[in-house]
């Protein structure tokens, strides 16, 4: 308990021995009207300003930033070594990895500065983080959709209809993701607290973002199914093996995401308050979903890594139905080219 007289200033530090949920309460016992408090209070543990519930997020972002840096370095080195036969799709993969690296590096710097230096939320870092989060989400989903459509794998280019559909969907997803991030930023950034944003704005904007993400999941699944059967029908064994591994990995990651989501619901429904704060960073999605995202991008990067056999990925242009199948003569020429590429 801290006694503060009217008009006085006070600075006080209290030592807390246990990690638990603590509350700071300001109470006026004089019965006076229009009592106001001004000032700033912070929680600081021996490890920094972050509370125990959010402390695991900082080393997580640091570790992910380091992992993305290693992935970008390895993929970039392979791209430089095989620059002559590099596919445009492989450049897109490298670009998405760079965006994810910058995003998590910004997160790591933001949380480290908060924990070790300022103990205050930075408006500048929040603005950059919201923009990078929206950009990374759109880039990652668009890359996955392009791979599922067979872009640069059995399609030299996407049709005009497909291109317009992908760009329109990506734009809508970016706009709603950005708006949702901005509205949420108003809730936890002190410099923006004076702006009265309706409390229902963030949940309302989360609806189109959720529906767009579900639509993307369905779209990617349908395109993967189409590509799988098309490659199998044309006996494209090398590309078919890549799609089989990609589908297997994505299914595994999707199952893990659903299990984590279910675990979060169960934890919130049955768990006690003293336990929830210990696992909230993980089951709420801040811990698992960034890890799953890294695994998805790492899988795509591994399957589409630049190699000496890049020519195998772009030898044959396949049609979408029987009326647009590639003639048998072209398949024979492609088989000869395969052999030449292997021998070379």
Overview of this structure, please?
The protein has nine helices and no strands. It has helices at 57-81, 88-118, 123-148, 160-188, 201-233, 237-270, 273-283, 288-303, 328-343. It has 344 residues and is mostly helical. Helix 2 runs antiparallel to helix 3. The longest helix is centred in the last third of the chain and has 34 residues, at 237-270.
Write the topology of this structure:
Elements lengths: L56 H25 L6 H31 L4 H26 L11 H29 L12 H33 L3 H34 L2 H11 L4 H16 L24 H16 L1
Helix pairs in contact: 1-2, 1-8, 2-3, 3-4, 3-5, 4-5, 5-6, 6-8
Give descriptors for this structure:
mainly alpha; 9 helices; 64% helix; single chain; 344 residues
How would you summarize this macromolecular structure in one to three sentences?
By secondary structure, the protein is mainly alpha-helical. Helix content is 64%, strand content 0%.
Shape assignment: elongated
Summing up helix and strand content along with how strands pair, one would put the structural category as mainly alpha
Distance between the termini: 80 Å
Helices and strands, in N-to-C order?
HHHHHHHHH
Mean pLDDT score: 81
Number of helices: 9
Rg of Cα set: 26 Å
The helix content, as a percent range, equals 55-70%
């Amino acid at each position: 308990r801290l006694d503060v007289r009217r008009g006085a200033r006070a600075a006080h530090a209290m030592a807390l021995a246990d990690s638990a949920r603590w509350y700071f309460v300001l109470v006026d016992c004089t019965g006076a009207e229009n009592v106001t408090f001004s000032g700033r209070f912070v929680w600081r543990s021996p490890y920094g300003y972050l509370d125990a519930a959010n402390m695991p997020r900082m080393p997580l972002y640091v570790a992910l930033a380091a992992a993305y840096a290693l992935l970008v370095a390895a993929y970039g080195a392979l791209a430089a070594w095989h620059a002559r036969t590099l596919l445009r799709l492989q450049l897109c993969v490298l670009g998405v990895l760079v965006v994810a690296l910058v995003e998590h590096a910004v997160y790591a710097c933001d949380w480290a500065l908060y924990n070790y230096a300022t103990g205050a939320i930075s408006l500048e870092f929040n603005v950059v983080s919201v923009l990078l989060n929206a950009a990374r989400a759109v880039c990652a989903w668009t890359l996955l959709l392009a791979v599922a459509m067979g872009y640069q794998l059995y399609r030299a280019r996407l049709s005009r209809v497909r291109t317009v559909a992908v760009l329109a969907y990506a734009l809508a997803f970016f706009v709603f993701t950005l708006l949702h991030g901005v509205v949420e930023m108003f809730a936890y950034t002190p410099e923006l607290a004076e702006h009265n944003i309706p409390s229902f704005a963030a949940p309302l904007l989360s609806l189109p973002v959720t529906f767009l993400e579900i639509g993307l999941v369905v779209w990617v699944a349908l395109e993967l199914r189409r590509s799988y059967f098309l490659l199998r029908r044309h006996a494209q064994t090398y590309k078919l093996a890549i799609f089989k591994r990609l589908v297997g990995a994505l299914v595994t990651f999707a199952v893990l995401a659903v299990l984590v989501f279910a675990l979060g619901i169960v934890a919130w429904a049955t768990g006690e308050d003293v336990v929830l704060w210990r696992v909230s960073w993980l089951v709420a999605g801040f811990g698992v979903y960034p890890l799953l995202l890294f695994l998805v991008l790492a899988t795509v990067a591994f399957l589409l890594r630049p190699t000496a056999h890049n020519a195998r990925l772009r030898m044959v242009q396949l049609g979408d139905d029987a009326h647009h199948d590639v003639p048998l003569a072209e398949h024979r020429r492609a088989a000869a080219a395969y052999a030449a590429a292997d021998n070379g």
